[in-house]
Design brief:
Blueprint: E1 8-18, H1 22-39, E2 56-64, E3 67-81, E4 84-92, H2 102-116, E5 121-127, H3 131-136, E6 139-147, E7 150-157, E8 172-179
Parallel strand pairs: 4-5
Antiparallel strand pairs: 1-2, 1-8, 2-3, 3-4, 5-7, 6-7
Length: 181
Amino acid sequence: MIIEKPEAFVTPEFLIRQATLPWEIGGAASLRHRTFVTEQGIFPDHDRDAVDKVALPLVAISTMASEADDVVGTVRIHEADPNVWWGSRLAVAPGYRRVGRLGAELIRLAVGTAHARGAKLFLAYVQMQNVPLFEKLDWQALGAQDLHGHPHMKMRADLAAYPPIEDPARGWMALTRKRVA
């Protein structure tokens, strides 16, 4: 008997929202550390800085049996100047990078949240390998810059492409698909 492999399977749903619970905030910090310190070596000891005191942490949370399970993606946003917002520290856990859409969903939440809070400009320094993703999501490259010894692209979001999100803590469920190899 030949059993055909399905072309794709549906992964669990993911909750995309502002981190509000201590385990969500801690999970975001842990994921950032694993990504930017341990995996990429961008920072020697930790990636925490003064922005963390004012930033809103946003997360993608995996679910099992409809229950929140683990923080598998994160980004933070903050207002640097009146109506000028920045996104930074976008990270998706290695086992979830090929799931699809988690980074895009976090970007949508980041820009939409800032838009609802009066952003007239939303910027980010993006690692060069991620520039194509941001361009697909209506971002414009403004120029390359070296940050922490690594090349980045300064980019601007097209706010018209991101409807305001008034309640980021409520968030939404995102169902993603993963291709079977």
